[in-house]
Amino acid sequence: MDTIWVPVLDPATKPKYRAVVNAIREAVAAGDLEVGGKLPPVRELGWKLGMTPGTVARAYTVLTDEGVLTAEVGRGTFVASPKAEPPLNLMEMDVIEHLTGGDNFDVNLFSPHLPNGGQSRLIRSLLSQIAQEPPSGVMHYPSRRGALRAREAMVHWLRETPLGPLSEADVVLSHGGQNAIMLIFQTILRGRRPVIFVEELCYPGFRRAADMLRADVVPVAMDADGLCPIALAAAAERYPDGQIICTSPEVHSPTCGFSPLERRRAVVEVAKRFDLQIVEDDCYRIGDAQAPSYRQIAPDRSWYISSLSKSVTPALRIGCAIGPRDQSAALHRAAEHGFFGLATPITDLAALLMLHPDLDEVMRKTREGVSDYVKAAVNALGAYDLKWRADVPFVWLNLPEGWRASAFCRAAETRGVRVRAAEEFAARQAQSPHAVRMAINAGVSLRSFEAAMGRLRDLLDNPTDEISV
């Protein structure tokens, strides 16, 4: 039977067809439009609403594609029966890689491969939703205004991080953490041969970004608490062109180290004394922060980097850079002049994903999975000098005295395990300790990972002439 219902549109919703879509969807959800009810013909509804039939037809098409309505040739448009789709149940994930991943003899521990805590299914569901009707459209250049919801979502995602006052205007979206580093360097660096100070063992991406921008990199000595302030001050005295300090105080890669508040304050004092900017890489943290960020301690000279790569998935390349308030416009320009902005379907996905009510549970399950793999590494290698944290997706092994890291890596590879030597995290001219970093790889089953750790333990227990000096 025909429906005499006429929607009440929200005048603030633009474009007009979207207001019709929202009104019909809400009426169906509220039961004002019952299953099987016939919608008015497009010309009739267009006349009643004071809009063109084409506008109404577009709204009907959107809702038909979504399955809210169904169109029958020669009969009209009706409210469709709801589809019986299984709900997204994170406790019964479609894939839990650390339990169901295939068994492998060859295990690559170069870079972290996160357990699937439900993010795979969640992202696929959101991608399907966006494909039906992308909020930002697919025919426009990215814009700052178009990415507003994604920046607001990033602020929400960082809500528990001690960053001090933060708004969407402070956030510059990036293609992951490495792109954020490049944006910050491009914003800060001045002069022909600027100098960047890094920890003597550090994330290699700092050096790669510096090379791209023709900046010199100076390694600074570390201790158990991170950057040594005395060594940093000495380096700043020696290199007056120094402009940036790069550090990872919450989760230091590769050593699993942490810089307490007292050390951070000492580094800030050196930065103020020599007018240096502080770039904080917080990409590897997947648990709670243990101390205030540099941005909270010294907001006038601190730059913060984060991404979803180590806590949700590296596939999406969603990250952010946050600078001092007076540098926000310059940081936005660096992104807009460099690549206009993230693709609009990606910002649409980022907004939905970071605001999704299931994301906290997904991340909790992912952390549990990381902890399972870390536990396997500790059980096998804990008798040696192993640095680890349950919520960090890698471990750091200081090799026994007399062992060479490069030879150990070669021997490990012959046993089907690839690990990274400390020298890969050191500057070219610097001496590196004989140590290795082993990332969590949940792309293989936990059983395969445990077997790989067992082979490394056997290698340590039974050194060969090739390894020992």
Pick out its properties.
469 residues, alpha/beta, Arc Repressor Mutant, subunit A, Aspartate Aminotransferase, domain 1, Aspartate Aminotransferase, domain 2, 4-stranded antiparallel sheet, 16 helices, 17 strands
Q: What would the average pLDDT be, to the nearest integer?
A: 90
CATH homologous superfamily descriptor of the largest domain: Type I PLP-dependent aspartate aminotransferase-like (Major domain)
What is the helix content? 25-40%
Q: Class by helix and strand content?
A: alpha/beta
Count of discrete structural domains:
3
Biggest sheet architecture: 7 strands, mixed
Biggest sheet, spatial arrangement of strands: 4-12-11-10-9-5-6
CATH topology of the largest domain: Aspartate Aminotransferase, domain 2
**CATH structural class of the largest domain:** Alpha Beta
Could you please describe the fold and organization of this structure?
The chain starts with 15 loop residues before the first helix and ends in an 8-residue tail after the last helix. Helix 6 packs parallel to helix 13 (344-354) and helix 7 crosses helix 12 (328-339). The protein has helices spanning 16-30, 42-49, 53-66, 97-100, 119-132, 148-157, 176-188, 204-212, 229-238, 261-273, 294-297, 328-339, 344-354, 359-381, 405-414, 446-461; strands at residues 69-72, 76-79, 107-108, 171-174, 195-199, 216-220, 222-223, 226-227, 242-247, 277-281, 302-307, 319-322, 385-387, 394-398, 417-418, 420-421, 435-439. Mean pLDDT is 90; it is low at 84-88 and 90-100. The chain folds into 3 domains: 16-79, Winged helix-like DNA-binding domain superfamily/Winged helix DNA-binding domain (Arc Repressor Mutant, subunit A, Orthogonal Bundle), CATH 1.10.10; 97-121 and 359-461, Aspartate Aminotransferase, domain 1 (Alpha-Beta Complex); 143-342, 3-Layer(aba) Sandwich (Aspartate Aminotransferase, domain 2). Helix 10 links the parallel strand 9 (242-247) and strand 10. The longest helix is centred in the C-terminal third of the chain and has 23 residues, at 359-381. A 7-stranded mixed beta sheet has the order 4-12-11-10-9-5-6, with helices on both faces. The chain has a 4-stranded antiparallel beta sheet with strand order 13-14-17-16, covered by helices on one side. It has 469 residues and is an alpha/beta fold.
